[in-house]
Amino acid sequence: MNTRRNFIKAMAAALALPLVARAQPREVILNYKGPACDCCGEWEKHMRANGFRVESRKVDDMDAIKRRYGVRDDLVSCHTALVGGYVIEGHVPASDVRRLLKEKSKVIGLTIPGMPASAPGMDGKPHKPYEVLAFDAGRAWVFERH
After folding, report:
1. Most buried pick, 45, 50, 102, 143, via CB within 10 A?
2. Dihedral through CA 130, CA 65, CA 31, CA 104, nearest 10?
3. Coil, strand or helix: which one is 143?
4. pLDDT by residue (tens digit) across 80-104?
């Protein structure tokens, strides 16, 4: 009887905590972006709304950042972010970043080459399909279709 009562008290206490307090620790994303990029800030808002903590760094030479982290010319988008040992290039949805972190894929990262109008932070209407690519040093392949 006492065990059951303790269990019920523990469950009631856990449910009384705010949802944020029960959530897992938030992943930190370091996002490099050019000084005049507005859409990058919109992508950062999308990531924060989906539970990530975002640290933003404005840099003048984005090409150097992309080279440093292995983003080939055919995979380039506007900003380059780092999270959990991966590179996230461009407006990749938070759900895909979560999946990558969960699966612990052996890749450099994810990218949406160019800037598809329907991607998070761009939010163009009506929705136009786009693909998120996973990439390593030599190739890229479809990770998810949206």
Report:
1. 143
2. 70
3. strand
4. 999 999 999 999 999 999 999 999 9
